[in-house]
Amino acid sequence: MTRHCLSCWPHRSRRPDGVRSSGCPGPFRRPLAAGCASVLIVACTAAAPEALGCDGCGTVQGSVTVEQAALRTEGPKHDLDVVISLDRVGGEDPPPAAATAEMDQRGLVFIPHVLAVQRGTTVTFLNNDNDEHNVYFLDDRTGETLDIGTWGQGVAVDHTFAEAGTVITLCKLHLEMAAYIVVVKSPWFSRITLDPTSRRGAFAIEDVPPGEYELSVWHKKLKQKGGTTRVNVSRGAAVDVDAVITKAKYATKTGT
Ligand SMILES: [Cu+2]
User: Fold this and answer.
1) How far is the centre of ligand 1, averaged over its atoms, from the C-alpha of 70 (Å)?
2) Could you say which of 49, 82, 228, 238 is the most buried, measured as most Cβ atoms within 10 Å of its Cβ?
């Protein structure tokens, strides 16, 4: 997450006619303050992830099942979204992607409710309501907040998430609005929606280079039972992982 870089806030506004204008003039062109150097690097030097379409890559696939926990299965803030991600063990993740994603505000709801992106991704925040909306971030780990502004219908503001972590996304004008941006380190991740009846969902992460990884399962309320799972991907192989998420008190790793 790009925290508190207000002097070089890398957002742009999009006018209702669709033409982007600079709401923070020249953040990518002028010299940045020292604390913002990482923003410039992320924006300008990101390379295509090596994972995409690589020879000999494997697939990590499987399922996520809920145990011993109730789930909200309906409404815009349901509990069915899960993010599965892989972190390479003892090696570098590919450089942050210069990717883009969108989060809309429509009908007083953030859409999607859970957005997963690789660090370095620029998210465009849209407003498709007649009302003004605000966007501010609450870092789930540090408790730090960042308000990126309030704007009306048809305007869009970009924000680049440079650090991995969970960013709770809120609107100061509509306290019922909430979303989660799950910023992961690597390009190997998948967001799935659990089936509300079976409380289970399948996932497949493709184009994973051979090597060792830690598989993490993120859910806004529940924890991965036993903690992260070590996964070894062989050349061209598919690895099956069946993960469980449950209440934190049941998730603690035992017997180790
Ligand atoms: Cu709002």
Assistant:
1) 28
2) 82
| Amino acid identity, position 33 | A
pLDDT band at 209 (very low <50, low <70, confident <90, very high): very high
The b-or-e profile of 146-165 (16+ CB within 10 A means b, else e) is bebbbbeeebbbbbbbbbbb
The strand pair at 121-126 and 100-106 is best described as parallel
Higher pLDDT, 35 or 233: 233
pLDDT per residue over 63-110, tens digit each? Answer: 999 999 999 999 999 999 999 999 999 877 787 777 899 999 999 999
Residue 149 CA to ligand 1 centre (angstroms): 11
Of 27-36, 43-52, 109-118, 219-228, the one with minimum mean pLDDT is 27-36
- What separation in Å is there between the alpha carbon of 184 and the centre of ligand 1? 26
- Quote the CA–CA distance of 179 and 137 in Å, as a whole number: 10
CA 182 – CA 140 distance, rounded (Å): 10
In order of their start, the domains of the chain are: 1-45+96-185 (2.60.40.420), 52-94+187-256 (2.60.40.1120)
Expressed in angstroms and rounded, the spacing between residue 5 Cα and the centre of ligand 1 is 23
